[in-house]
Amino acid sequence: MITNIPQIKHTESGNFFLMAGPCVIEGEEIALKIAEKIVKISDKLEIPLIFKGSYRKANRSRLDSFTGIGDEKALQILNKVSKEFGIPTVTDIHESHEAAIAAEYVDVLQIPAFLCRQTDLLVAAAKTGKTINVKKGQFLSAGSMKFAVEKIQESGNPNVILTDRGNTFGYQDIIVDYRGIPEMRSFGVPVVMDCTHSLQQPNQASGVTGGKPALIETIAKAAIAVGSDGLFIETHPDPANAKSDGANMLHLDLLEDLMIKLIRIRKAIS
After folding, report:
1. Nearest one of 14, 35, 38, 36 to 25, comparing CA atoms
2. pLDDT of 10-35, one tens digit each?
3. 3-state class of 150 per DSSP?
4. 154-157: long-range pairs with CB below 8 Å, 24+
5. DSSP 69
6. pLDDT tens column, 143-199
7. Where are the domains of the chain?
8. How far, in Å, CA of 44 to CA of 25, rounded?
9. What are phi and psi of 231, to 5 degrees?
10. Beta-carbon neighbour count of residue 249 at 10 Å?
C-alpha cells in the first residue's frame, strides 16, 4: 500500500520499508550527507526508503530548545533531497494551515503523536491527497487509532500509515506493547514501528528528553518479528551534537548492519 508514494523504490523486494533521517533539518550539507548514506544502504539492500526530516519542531520542553532553521528553508532542503536522490520525503505538520504548505515540498505528511486526535489537522492533511503517516499517541490504545484512520479516509484520502511509538509508562519512561502492531494492521493500513522515539525518556528535570539508543536494535527486531510493515528510525552521524533528540537517535554508522540483521529476520518469518 506504500506503492502510491511517488518515487518509492524496491517495493517488489519483499522487505519492510524504512522512514529514516535526522530528527530535524539542521542545514543543507548535513541533510544531503545523511540522505546520501541512507540511500546507498537502502539501494544496496533493496529497502523501500522515505527520507525523514522535520522542517520545524513545535513540541519542545524549553523555550530555548532548537526548533529549526526556518520553515521555507528547511522545506526547500527536503525538496532538494527528493530531487537529488530520487526518493520520497516525509515531514511532520502541527497546525491545519501547514498541511497545504508542506504538501508542496514533500510526499508524505506526518501527524505527531500528541496531535493524532486533532480532527481539523487530520482532515486538512487528508485533503492534500498526500499519504498521511499518523503517529499513535503515547496516551492511546492501538485500537483507538482506527478513528484517526476513519477521519482521513472519510475525508476522501485512502492513503494512511500508522506508526507506533510506545506508551507512556509512569512519568519518565515509555514501553512498547507489541500487540498493537497486528491490531492496527487489522485496519487495513501499513503499520510502522518508531524505533527511536519509543526509547525516549521524557520529562527530565533538565527539560531535555533522554533516551536509550542501545535498545534500538531490540525494538526493531521485535517489531519485524511481529509483522511491522515498516520502521521509523532517526539517525545522525553525530547524535551527541545533534540539535534535537540526539539522546535517542541511532548513529548513522550503525544503520547498515542493523538493516542486514532485520532483513534476515524478515526472511525467516515470511
Report:
1. 35
2. 999 999 999 999 999 999 999 999 99
3. helix
4. 155/122, 155/123, 155/126, 155/127, 156/126, 156/127, 157/125, 157/126, 157/127, 157/128, 157/129, 157/130, 157/132
5. S
6. 999 999 999 999 999 999 999 999 988 887 889 999 999 999 999 999 999 999 888
7. 2-269
8. 25
9. -130, 145
10. 24
Sequence-distant (≥ 6) Cβ neighbours of residue 236 within 8 angstroms: 22, 23, 34, 242, 246, 249, 250, 251, 252
- 98's grid cell: 501547514
Dihedral pair phi/psi, residue 62, rounded to 5°: -115, 150
Whole-prediction pTM: 0.93
Q: What is the Cα–Cα distance from 21 to 5, expressed in whole angstroms?
A: 17
CA atoms of 141 and 121, how far apart (whole Å): 20
Rounded Cα distance, 83 and 175, in Å: 37
- Cβ contact 176:219 at 8 Å: yes
Class of domain 2-269: alpha beta
